[in-house]
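Lab channel / #folding
Pinned by the channel admin:
"Please post every new chain as: sequence first, then the structure tokens as a reply. Keep commentary short and put observations after the output so the thread stays searchable."

First post following the new format, from NK:
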Amino acid sequence: MWPPDPEPEPAGSPRPGAAGPALRALLPARAFLCSPKGRLLLAESGLSFITFICYVVSSASAFLTVPLLEFLLAVYFLFADAMQLNDKWQGLCWPMMDFLRCVTAALIYFVISITAVAKYSDGAYKAAGVFGFLATIVFAIDFYLIFNEVAKFLKQGDSAAEENTAHRAEEENSDSDSD
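Reply from TO:
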């Protein structure tokens, strides 16, 4: 009968289509990819790659560099967050780097998308402009969420600092009373 029956494999041999454990170690965890941050980073990298491809096939590729750099940065932050490098490398301010990446990407994508749609009549430029506008929205959502997280963190830090200052003032007052 067609297709031929596959021969039984030995018990210890891996399937040819299955990724080995070394390759699975490089892939982000499914739980991270399903989280809101993981989904945003996947959308950012996907839209940046599609925009890059649109600029590659267009007649004049003046804006080719921006989507390529943003794609590479989005993939880097995707793997950095998935591998929890922010916990391992404490010397870097990860939320601020991610925030600045998203703000600059949103602004630059917005500018080059307007230019691509308004100035050029090539269909690939129009498509790149549309995907650039979508990327602008995704990057703007990401920096808004990062800003809210940083603002909450700073408010918690301010309230803790105020409590420490009040506690120190009480200690100083009680020390001066005992003299």
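NK: The chain has a mean pLDDT of 79.
TO: also worth noting, The radius of gyration is 25 Å.
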